[in-house]
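Example noted here:
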Amino acid sequence: MTDDKNQPEGAPEEGAPQGGEEFIQAEGPDVETSLNDADQAFLNGEGDLPAGPDGAEQDSEHLADLRRVTAEYANYRRRTERERDALRDRATGDAARAFLPVLDDLDRAEAHGDLAEGGPLTAIAQKLRGAVAKLGITPYGEKGELFDPHQHDAIFQRESPDVTSPTVSDVVERGYRIGETTLRVAKVVVDTPSGS
């Protein structure tokens, strides 16, 4: 504090605002605030949510909001993971479609006996099929399967007394999937029951 005797009349006090500013005194929170036992127990994970100044009703609303936000975040995280997986499968599938004709040629070569054990193309065929399998691409369409119009493309049908329901009798081109996505449906010959 300055001594009023040494100060000229009308001069502002030291530390007082200048230029007609109004000085407002405000009281802020204490720097060192002590927690009561209930608050400390809750922060340590040992007790229930302590009652706030507005009572337990407001606390339960805050707790419900916290649970809702937590559930929304968990749903968001699951949705983005699913979308990321679907996008990865789609990108891998787009790249893998270029290899499908080569895999078809390998299947035809194998059917004609050109990929006999120890042959020059056997090692290459195994490596290519192994690489495709590592990408998560799986072939489907086998002789004897029940015909499914969603999974098979029937390029030819013939009646047969040996079947009781439409059945794949020959696979012209295998189908391929990656995850839940079908890259290409299988092209098949279908035997249908006689008289249908």
Q: What stands out?
A: The chain has four helices and six strands. The longest helix spans residues 56-96. Residues 97-193 form a domain with the Nucleotide Exchange Factor Grpe; Chain A, domain 2 fold (CATH 2.30.22.10).
